[in-house]
Amino acid sequence: MFIRKGFHGTKTRDLAEEAGVNEATLFLYFNSKQDIFDAAITAPLRGIVKQQMKEGRAFATAPREQKERIGIQANREILESVAEMYPLLVASLFADGEIGRDIYRRDIYPMVKRLRAATKVSFHLDDDAQAEFVALAAFGLSFSMLLHHDLLGIDIDLDKTAERIGNLLLFGAFKRPKD
C-alpha cells in the first residue's frame, strides 16, 4: 500500500483491508501508521545486519582461499535484502524529503553503523571512517544497481552483480588478482 499510494496517501483502513484484518487489530500491534511503515523498513534491515555480523566473523577467521566465497556470499545477501525492500526504500526515501531523512537517520544509518562494526571485524580495521565507507559502499552499490536496472527496465542478475560488488570491495577490481 505504501508503495502504491505513498505514505500520506495510505490510510490505516487500506492497510487493514490489505492485511485482511480490521483496523482495530492493526492498533493492537502498532500505535500508528508511522509505526507500521517503520516496521516494514526496520525488520528487513535488522535481518541484513544480523546476517552480516555472522558473515563478518566468518570472513575474519577464514583461510585466505575461502574469503572470496564468503565475501561474495555476504554481498549477495545484502543485494537480496535490499532487492526485497527496494520498492519501499524508494517510496520512503524519495517520496517525502522529511520522512526520507527521518527514516535514514532513525533506521538506515544505525544499520550502516552496525554494518561498519561487521566490516571492522571482517577486515581487521581500526578506523571507523574507513569501515563505514566500506559498509556504505556495499549497501550503496546494491541499492544503486537495483535502481539502475529498475529505471532502465532491465532484469538484474543477482549472482553476477553480487560477485562484481564483492570482487570490487575485496580486490578493487572485477576479477580476483592472480597470486
Task: Write a concise synopsis of the structure shown.
With 179 residues, the protein is mainly α.
Structural overview:
The protein is mostly helical. It has helices at 2-9, 12-19, 23-29, 33-61, 64-94, 97-123, 128-152, 158-171. Helix 1 (2-9) packs across helix 5, helix 4 packs antiparallel against helix 5 and helix 7 runs antiparallel to helix 8 (158-171).
Calculate the terminal CA-CA distance, rounded to whole Å: 51 Å
The SS-based structural class is mainly alpha
- Tertiary shape: elongated
Order of helices and strands: HHHHHHHH
Radius of gyration: 18 Å
Task: Tell me the total number of β-strands.
Answer: 0
Helical fraction: over 70%
- Approximately what portion of the residues adopt beta-strand conformation? under 5%
The major pleated sheet works out as: none
In DSSP terms (H or I, runs of 4 or more residues), the helix count works out at 8
Task: Report low-confidence residues grouped into runs of 5 or more.
Answer: none
| Residue-averaged pLDDT | 84
Q: Could you outline the blueprint of secondary structure elements for this entry?
A:
Elements: H1 2-9, H2 12-19, H3 23-29, H4 33-61, H5 64-94, H6 97-123, H7 128-152, H8 158-171
Helix pairs in contact: 1-5, 2-3, 4-5, 4-6, 5-7, 5-8, 6-7, 7-8
